Each structure stands twice: as structure tokens, then as C-alpha cells.
Amino acid sequence: MAISLTTKLISELGNSTGSVLPIWVKDVTQDTATTLVYSKNGGKHDGKEKAIEEYGTGIVWVCGIPFMKKIIDKTVYKAAKINPDFDIKKLKEGASDSLEYSLEKAKVYAKDQLPELEKVLKNKNLAKGLFIGKFIASTAISMAALSGLIHLKQKTTENKIKEKLLSDEVVQKNLQEKADFNYFMGANKKENLSFKGAASVLANFMYNPVWNMSILDGAISGTRLVKARKGERGEVLFKEASVISFFYILAGPIQKGLEKLSEKLFKKPINLDYKVLADDEFVKTVKDGSLKNAIKDFKTTNKQGVEVLDYIWENQGNALVETLKKSGVVPTRENPSFFKKLINGKNLKNAAESKIDALKYMDPEEILSQIDIIENFVNKMPVQDIKKHMKTTKALKIASIFGNIAISVLFLGIIQPMLAIKRRELKGGDKENPAIKEAEQKAKIELKLK
Fold first, then answer.
1. What is the distance between the alpha carbons of residues 114 and 122, in angstroms, rounded to a whole number?
2. Cα(112)–Cα(34) distance, rounded to whole angstroms?
3. 3-state SS of the chain: helix, strand, coil percent to 5?
4. Dihedral sign, Cα of residue 415, residue 417, residue 423, residue 425
5. Are 370 and 213 in contact (CB under 8 A)?
6. pLDDT band for position 178 (50/70/90)?
């Protein structure tokens, strides 16, 4: 059975800890809501500032970093003859799915990937260096673009203020035709991005997929705080802390909470990946008992670490391993990425037809956790009239995914900006951004002095 685009899309949206798609959807939606809230309820310059910064940052984040990484993959990695798809976590000391382990398995199950693995074996330090260099380069360039974007936003507001003041009749009389916009622009203080301490976080970044996304947003937040004007840093800090919390820290717990609530209320577990729930072959293996028997076979002994990986490699084709492939915890080679699928518009191959990717990392703990989730589902799902039950289960899963997104957007796009505007009123007596108010006063004084 082919996996449809809709199924893959919903599955990606539900992957709060491993896919950028739900973060991108939340980002675009909350950016729109934030811009509308500030345009309607904030100061006169707020809406335009938010539109420039929020949408501009989204473009830098979504397009800039992946674009730079792709260029590096096609140039630097190609010149070094190292496959950029190789998962650097295989080089972590003590890893169960180590490079050496993958080489042994590839000799039997993935012979065509042996040359790629052997190249990395001979050039471990080069592979690590390329990975770290790609991260630093793509992040630094993107942060420089973001810094310029924030500067553009602030200068656009300053120019609007000065245009307004210069259009005033009294100011026109005082200045006559001597207005010099460059006088008010001020010196453009350049700020160099610092990577001091990067080495201490790169180790975590290399081995933790959550860091792979969150460290970039952390750098964005830091840049925004550094570039924030006097009087608005508290507001920026609250906003950035909220974004980091809802995009990364709370995304997983909120999804799990909604799934537990659904199971409690409707007696149906929905914590499997949506593309597994939507797969007819999976439903068939639940109904005929083959999945339950495969789980029982796996659990005949208390497998840990390498034993888990051995079972996966040696039992490809059985119901459990194929379900693990569909869920994504066992990486496969033949399934194109979501974005390639989106561009090509062709059906994805069923994971059951795919081979395990020896270049990618398999986490035994993650696999064991997923097996427990599958077992819980199999034990609780009624075999009789299973298609009817699966229809309800899929609907509940979709509701939980979009509910998670909605909660994030509600807070970040509406509640957070409304609280920020209310804070302005309590501190300054009006809805104007205090930094913009100060810029207006400064411009007035400079005009008088001129």
C-alpha cells in the first residue's frame, strides 16, 4: 500500500520532536496572528515591525539554513567524498548502533552501502569536522541575515517617525529645506556573532535531534535580545521564552497529554504515528494476530542494546519490524523525504518494501519504547469491527495533532502579544512600544538642535 501525501503530511505534523514541519506551521500561523493583534491593539508602528521581523525570520529559518546546508552537502562533502546522510551519532563513544556495528551488518544486509561506511571509517575526524563546520557556517550566515533584518525593521520605524516629524509645519519652517535624513540615521553599529562556548553545546547538538532544531531558534532568540532597543527587552524576552517553550519544551508533553486524555475518555490509544494508523497492512496484522505474535516472539528474552538491533536486522519482513519501519524509529532508505514527496507528487513506497538504512542511527531505547506503545495498542484495540474502531482512532489522532498546534498558536499568536500590550499600558499608560516612544522623543530633540 502506498502512503498518500495527506497521510504523510498529518504524520509530519504530529511529529513534534523530530520534524520541522509542525514548528513551521505554528510559526507561520502565530506570526500572522501576532501581526494582526499588534496592528489592531498595539502602537501605530507595531504591526509593520512585527510583519517585517516575524515573516522575515521565518524565511531565514525555513529557507536560509537548509539552503546553506544543501550547498555544503553538494560542494564540501562531495569534495571530501563523505556521504552527508551519514548520521554522526554513530561516532558517539559507547553507541550501540556504532559505525563498526553498522559495517558488520551492512556486509550481510546492506552491501551497497559498505563503501560509504568504509569511507567514514577511514576519515572519522573529517566526518566530525564537516558536520560541525556545516552547523557553524549555516547558523552564522543565517544569524547575520537575521541581524540585518532586525536592523532593517528598526530603521524602517525610525524613518517613518522622522518622515512624520518632517511633515509637521513647524518643523518644516525651522528646517526649511535643510533636512538631512542621514543626520538622524546614526552610526550603524555592527555586532559580531559570537560562538564562544559553542564547543560545549556541539556535543549535545551532534547526538540529540531536539538540539538540532532548538539550538537554531535559541541563537535567533539571543540575537533578538542583543538587538532589542532600550525599553523593549523585557517584552522580547517574554516573547522568545514563550516561543522556545511552546515549540520545543512543551510540544511533546502537550501532545502526550492530549493522547492520554483521548485514551481515558474514548478508551482508544492514539499515540502511534498517524501513518501507522492509516496503513491497511498494519490493521491487517492487528486483526490476524501476526503483530501480536511477533511482539511475543521479540519479548521471549529481555533484549537490550545491540540485541535489539540484531533482532531488527535479522527479522526484516515480520509484522513488528515492518511496523517499526512505518513508525520511523527504524530508518529506511527508499522512502523519499516529505519535501521531495511534496515536490514530486508521487506516492511514497510502503515502508514494508524498504530496506534498513545503515547510514542512519537506530536507538535501542527508542525502539523498545515504541514496541511498548505498539503492544499497548494491540492489546486494547478490539479485533471485531476493527475498521470502524480505526476510523474513530484516526479521527482522534488528527484532532490531537491539530489541537496541539492550536494551543501553541493561541498562546503565541494571541495571548502572548495581548499580555505584552497590557504590560505596556500598566507601565507606561498607553499601548505604544516604549522603545519607539523613546526614538520619537530622540528624533524631536535632534530636530530642534538641528
1. 12
2. 50
3. 75, 0, 25
4. negative
5. no
6. very low
* pTM for the structure as a whole: 0.75
pLDDT tens sequence across 414-428: 999 899 888 888 877
What is the DSSP secondary-structure string of 10-76?
HHHHT-TTT-SHHHHHHHHHHHHHHHHHHHHHS-TTHHHHHHHHHHHHHHIIIIIHHHHHHHHIIII
- Per the CB < 8 A criterion, the answer to whether 42 and 310 are in contact is no
Here the cell at position 48 is: 509593520
Greatest extent of the chain over all pairs of C-alpha atoms, in Å: 92
Distance (Å, whole) CA 161 – CA 151: 15
CA dist 408 → 180, 234, 241 (Å) = 46, 21, 13
In which residue are the cell numbers 484532532 written?
Answer: 399
Among residues 127, 126, 132, 97, the alpha carbon closest in space to that of 205 is found at: 132
pLDDT at 421: 86
| Closest of 397, 356, 337 to residue 18, by C-alpha | 337
Identity (one letter) of the amino acid at 352? A
User: Given this model, what pLDDT does residue 33 score?
Assistant: 87
CA distance 402 to 25: 10
Provide the sign of the torsion angle of the four alpha carbons 5, 6, 9, 11, taken in this order: negative
**In the prediction, which pLDDT does 93 show?**
85
Cα–chain center distance at 156: 30
Residue 197: pLDDT band with limits 50, 70, 90: very low
pLDDT tens for each residue of 275-321: 999 999 999 999 999 999 999 999 999 999 999 999 999 999 899 99
CB-based contact 37:417 (threshold 8 Å): yes
What lies within 8 Å, CB to CB, of 390 at 6+ separation is 277, 283, 381
Any idea what DSSP says for residue 42? S
Which residues have C-beta within 8 Å of that of residue 213, sequence separation ≥ 6?
Answer: 20, 23, 248
The CA distance from 220 to 218, in Å, is 5
* Distance from C-alpha of 121 to C-alpha of 442, rounded to nearest angstrom: 62
pLDDT for the residue numbered 143:
72
CA–CA distance, 328 with 123 (Å, rounded to integer)? 28
- The end-to-end CA distance of the chain, in Å, is 75
Residue pair 131/376 in contact (Cβ under 8 Å)? The answer is no
Residue matched to cell numbers 556541539:
202
